[in-house]
Amino acid sequence: MTPTEKTDSKTDVTTNGQPERLNLRSEDLVGDKQAELLRLFPEAGTEGGKIDFDRLKLALGQTIDVGKERYGINWPGKADCFRTIQTPTVGTLRPFAGDSVNFDVAEHVVIEGDNLEVLKLLQKSYLGKVKLIYIDPPYNTGNDFIYPDNYTESLETYLEYTGQVDAEGKKFGTNTEADGRFHSKWLNMMYPRLYLARNLLRDDGAIFISIDDGEVANLRKVASEVFGEENFVATVIWQKVFAPKNTARHFSEDHDYIVVYARNADNWSPAALPRTEEANARYSNPDNDPRGPWMSDQLTARNYYSKGLYSVKCPSGRVIEGPPRGRYWAVDEDKFKALDVDRRIWWGEGGDNMPRLKRFLSEVKQGIVPQTLWKHEDVGNTQEAKKELLEYVSFEHTDNVLDTVKPTRLLRKLLQLGTTTDSGDIILDFFAGSGSTGHAVVAQNAEDGGNRKFILVQLPEPLPKPEKALKTIADICKERVRRVMEKFDSQDAGNLDLKGGQKASPRGFRVFRLAESNFKTWNAEAPKDPNALAEQLDLHVNHVREGRAAADLLYELLLKSGFPLTTPVETKKVAEKTVHSVAGGALVVCLETALTLELIRGIADLKPERVVCLDDGFAGNDQLKANAAQTFKTKGVTSFKTV
Fold it and tell me: Quick check: helix, strand or coil at residue 464?
C-alpha cells in the first residue's frame, strides 16, 4: 500500500479497489505498544507518529533524573535482549499430521522448534489466552543446553542447527563458567522468552518456573522486572529427593524451587487444594461440642491493636492480666466475651490455660490453602519421575534417559492450583522436555473430567545416542504423550460409568514444526546486482516455496490471521473449487491458483467476515481483483486480503 492510499474504515480494502496484502511477519510488539501510548497520550506524539518521551513524562506528571543511579538488574547483553524481542519472525509452523494423533479434531498441540521463535509466532493467536504457564528451563549447571555457539537468536540460526538449511558443522553448545559470562548468557536466554510469555497470559493467569539455587536469585530479579514485583506470588520449596546424598561435599541438596508470578496479582489467586484425611485428622472434639470437631488457634497478634489490652478471667477463676508482653488480643473485649458465651474459647481441659479460639471443621473452607513447602510424599520426587518416563518410553540407550524430569504429581498440583475443570484452560510449557506437562494435563482431565488443553514446545535437540524411533528430545515428548493418551483411551473403553453412558472421544494432539515461511518474501538487503535482482523479481511470479502443501499454507495464514492452531476448519467445494471455512465461517481461505468470478461470488455467498486468497490466483488480472474486492464489500466482508 503506497503512502497515498488509505484504508477504508470498514474494510481492509484500499480506496483504489485493491485488497490489502496479508502481513506475514509476527506481531509488531513495539509498534502496537507505541500506538497504544499515542492513543492514551496523543499530546506525546510528534510529526510522523513518533513519541516524544519528554512530553510523555510531562503528561504523566513525572520527571526523571537520568543521571542518578536506580535500583534494578543489568548484565552484558541486556540491550540485545530488547532487539531480539522487537525483531519479528517470518517463520511459520508447518503441520505434520503423520506425527500427530487424531489431527483433525485434536485440541492439544506439540510444537518442535526454538521456543523464542515459536513464542513470537503465537503472539497474534494466543495473546492473553493462556491460563497457566509452567516451564522447567535449563538450570545453568554448565552441562545443559543454552543455545547455539554463535550466540545468535534467529530463525536462520535454528534452521542451520536442525539441518533444514546448509550449515558448516555447527553444534549445540553448553554454558561453562570458564566462558566469563556464565550468568549473563543464561539471562540473555531467559529474558526475551519471559517477556513474550507474559503477553500470552490471561489477566487471571500465572506462570510457575522451576529452578535451583544456582539461578533462583537472578530469576527472581529478572521475573520481577518482566512481570512486576507486585505480581510475585510465592517461592515454593519442593523436596525433590527422599534420601540424603552422603557423597555431597557440603550439604545434600534435597530441594528445588518453583517461582510463581501472576499476570495480575489482583486478579489471580490459587484454588484451594482438596482436603486430605491427614488435614482433617488435626480436628478433634475433646469437649463434645455439638458443632463437631475443631482445632484451637491463638487469640493474640503482634500488630498493635488499641482495644487489644484487657484482662480476662479463666473458668478456674484465675485472672490473666493481658496477653503476653509485646502481643495484643486479636479481638476487643466485647467480642471476646461474646465468643466465650458461644463456647468458642478453649481454656484447656482444666479451664486454666491461656485462651485460644476454636475453629470448627464444618466452618472451614472445603479446600486447603496451599503452603510453600511441598514434600516428596505429596508431590513425588525425581526417582518417581524417571520411573514414569520409562513406563511410557522405551530407550535403547540409557544415556538418553533425561535426568531433569518432573513427576506428574508435582505438575498436577500446579494444575489444581492454577486452572479450573471445565473452562477449557490453556496450559503452555515451552521447555517441554519429555512431555511431563502434557502427561499431567491428560491425567488430571481424566480424573476430574476437565477439558484443559496443552501447548508443548520443545527444541529437537539431538539425543546423545540417536535411536531407531527416537532421534531428539522432541521425539521423546511426542512418544510419551502418545502412549499416555493410548492408556487413558483404553481405560475409557472399559469404563461403563462415563457421563450419559456415551463413549468418550479419543484423545489426540497436533504436531507442528518451526520452519521458514511458506511464502518467499522480498529481501531488501539482497545484493544490488542483476542476478540477485532477477531472483527477487521471480518471487512475484511464484512466491510459494517448493515442496509446501496446501495444509502448510493454510495453517500459516490461520496463525498470522490470529486464529489458534486448533481452530476448526471445514473444507468446502464452491464453483468446483476448494475453499477452507475457518471457525464456523468467520474466515474463508482460498488457495486456488486460478480464481474465477463465479468462485468469488460463491465465497461471498458464504457470508464470511474475512477472506484471504493467494495473489497468484488472480494471475495479474487487476480487473478481477477489483471486482472481487467490490463483491466482498457488497456482501459485508470486513476484511479481504491477499498473500
Answer: coil
